[in-house]
Fold this protein.
Amino acid sequence: MTDTATTSNAGAFEVRPNPAPTSAAARAEALADLRFGVQFTDHMARMQWRKDEGWNDRRVEAYAPLQLDPAAAVLHYAQEIFEGLKVYRWEDGSLHLFRPVANAERFNRSARRLAMPELPVEDFLGSIEALVAVDGEWVPGSEESSLYLRPFMFASEAFLGVRPAHVMDYLLIASPVGPYFPGGVKPVSIWVATDYHRAGPGGTGAAKCGGNYAASLLPQQEAYAHGCQQVMFLDAREGKFLEELGGMNLFVVRADGTIETPRLTGTILEGITRSSVIQLLEDDGKKVVERDITLAEITAGIDSGDIAEIFACGTAAVVTPVGRLASESFDVTVGTGDAGSVTMAIRERLTDVQYGRADDVYGWMHRVG
Ligand SMILES: *Cc1c(COP(=O)(O)O)cnc(C)c1O
């Protein structure tokens, strides 16, 4: 599966340089102490859409607070979508995105579900290339670090009536991030939510929208209260089948080497990491099955030793081993409780492609600097 190459219209973005950019010394200091999503680069890219006019006002300008009318529709009805992807710095200093066209296409699927206008793929790519052209020095070069990109679109029309807004703002901001697990990959513990769901049939589960995250925060708090770091959601209809975590997809590794992941039902977010992991595993000769997986067979399989590893995956944390699964009625250690070998191998396979240490046989990487 090769992602279609698409041209970008980075040149259409008018650059208004930040009059007071971060000094090289202050930037170096910031890049030496990376945490997730707290530090932002000097610029942001933006565009605006108006009904009847379409997309206009392509700009790269100083990163700054927005002016928003208190009646802006997003603040009342949550008409908002986002994406998340990274710029990787290779050993030779060059800068690369991983499957950005897949993010652009998913952004448009999310837009359709939230009754928002689609954004041409060349604008999505163009905004990224235009921003990286001015803020490329913010891409860290230390191990497993990257520049996290957050494209998002929201309803900015000042109007309290309930209908799709006639004005939308698209913005792209960027944040240098370090390894998700400073000091090495550590297995996470997961609380299985039984009283709450993140998505239901016909809802917005397959769209990347802020509202899904708002709904996941209370169960997430419940997970923390039980000493767990993440929540696993089950299907809303029967409360029986594994779906995913608040922001990561799930995989199960059986002792016989078969790998399973919940099939896409419309309530699960189709992760780009998920589909890449499936492809890499299959190409390595592993059997990957996408199907409905019950929680009962997971707990039984962990007890019997039939399930050897569980891992979660997504752009931010890449591939994360799951060491423990708990809920009101059980608390089990997965395998040895440590990161399993299949999990760590697929993690390395994927990051080797992303950081240019392995051949990009799929055409997944997209150079931006
Ligand atoms: C973004 C996201 C993922 C992971 O998607 P990637 O494309 O792999 O980053 C998984 N689940 C949810 C709910 C998400 O929002």
In short: Residues 210-225 form the longest helix (16 residues). The two ends are 24 Å apart (CA to CA). The longest strand covers residues 167-177.
